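Run log, item B.
One chain of 190 residues. Sequence copied directly from the ordering sheet:
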Amino acid sequence: MGRHRHARHPQTAHHRWTHLLAGVPWITLVLLAVLALGTAELVRPRTYLATATLTAPTVAAADRLATQLADPDLRPRVEREVELDPELTGSVRLAVRDGEREREVSLEATAPDPRLAALAADTGAAVVAQDRADGTSLSEAAEVPTEPVDHRGPAWLVVAAAALAVAVRVEGVHRVWLRDHPVPEPRGAR
């Protein structure tokens, strides 16, 4: 008899969990998640990229130039030079990449404002060129970007629509399952 009781208990507990999961408003949860993610996507600041190019007198000088441009102390120095508003401090990012020609090195600046991105790239390049006495020069100034680098496409809407379709399907299956498996009355309720 004790054995029979233990065999039924896991099935009843499983049955309760199934009813509990079936009672979750999946569509509402997915809609709330889509609303939260959509809002976060819309309020997230855009990022703009601008590039300034420096030309060094030799290939070895270009290697040293790249190292100097990659120095982590350059970003705070650029922010001071452009007299960046304190609330924007830390929003500028700098990256170094090889230029199109052998002795060229490019400084990429990303920022939440297109003019700030161009100003940061030009300022960083000018500061480093000024520090060097080997003939390094600014060969191409940064242009103010017209388009952000983080395009907000409809991809998140497609994912949201797919998640909502799955939630609708799960709710439909759960409703059918609940109709076929009514909630058991607790013992002693009668």
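Observations after the first pass:
- The chain has two domains: 18-45+152-185, 47-140.
- The longest strand covers residues 48-55.
Flagged for discussion on Thursday.
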